[in-house]
Design brief:
By secondary structure, this protein is of the alpha/beta class. The chain has ten helices and 15 strands.
């Protein structure tokens, strides 16, 4: 299978999963018509998503998996969800970062996408508790070859700590490192966001570390696609009014956008920033 075919499969499966979650279930024949692919292709997609625990197959289609509030998918499993939305969000979020800023990026697949869009912003100081994010900047620093850093490449501070399934470093070591630092902007990925629960995660230690990151930042920007709205993890770590800006994608319904703006001052919809 070529790289293009792989990309198309990931995008198609993300659309299937979004449809399952939005409608509470789908049938194979509906998906074949909507996506203009064969019955066998859809069944292979459903098999792949079921193996990852993203949905449950039923006769003739699929339904959502009812996840426990403590369930935390791994980085690879989350990477296939909403890839184009995450890239749009990352591009819009990167536009908020001026050269020379001190910023923090939490763990997550959306912040990982953001890191790649920040490589062209010169002279950044980046604090992160994400192994994946740190790797993006580390590889960029060595891009010039010869073991020397690329001119203008970001300086990265990686916290220590215990590693979560999503490759974030959390716990007392990470918390102590973060508390001693101060940064202009925090870009925060979240497991769930809602009016009632605010920002939440299934990992208790990650909730504490995320809280430390927020308290060390002058401005907090949540980067999360529309599927995170209404999701609630085991532990809440912030109310919506503690967030300065939420950068999301065009899948967020208009009614939800209005509700969000009642609780936080800034909402950026990637591709619709003028709104």
């Amino acid at each position: 299978m070529t790289d293009n075919q792989n990309l198309l499969a990931e995008q198609r499966r993300a659309l299937i999963l979004d449809e399952v979650r939005r409608r509470g279930g789908v049938r194979v024949n509906e998906l074949t018509r909507r996506l203009s692919v064969s019955d066998m292709t859809i069944r292979r997609d459903l098999d792949a998503l079921a193996r990852q625990g993203m949905l449950a197959k039923v006769h003739g289609g699929a339904v959502p998996v009812v996840e426990a509030s403590t369930h935390e998918p791994g980085f690879a499993a989350k990477s296939v969800l909403e890839p184009s939305a995450k890239d749009d969000i990352a591009r819009s979020a990167a536009a908020l970062v001026p050269p020379g800023a001190a910023i923090a990026l939490s763990g997550g697949t959306t912040t990982y996408a953001l890191a790649r869009h920040l490589l062209d912003v010169p002279d950044l100081t980046v604090v992160t508790n994400s192994v994946r994010v740190a790797d993006v900047f580390h590889e960029d620093r060595l891009a010039g070859g010869g073991g020397e850093s690329r001119r203008g490449a970001a300086t990265v501070v990686l916290t220590g700590g215990m590693r979560t399934p999503s490759d974030a470093l959390v716990g007392p070591v990470a918390d102590r490192a973060v508390r001693s630092l101060h940064f202009d902007l925090l870009f925060l990925g979240v497991h769930g966001i809602s009016v009632e629960a605010g920002l939440s995660t299934p990992n208790l230690a990650e909730a504490e570390t995320n809280g430390c990151l927020m308290r060390s930042a002058r401005r907090v920007v949540v980067v999360a696609d529309h599927t995170k709205w209404g999701t609630v993890g085991l532990s809440s770590f912030a109310d919506l009014d503690e967030v300065d800006t939420w950068v999301t994608d065009r899948g967020l319904p208009e009614g939800v956008r209005a509700e969000v703006l009642e609780h936080l001052p800034g909402l950026v919809v990637a591709g619709e920033e003028q709104a």
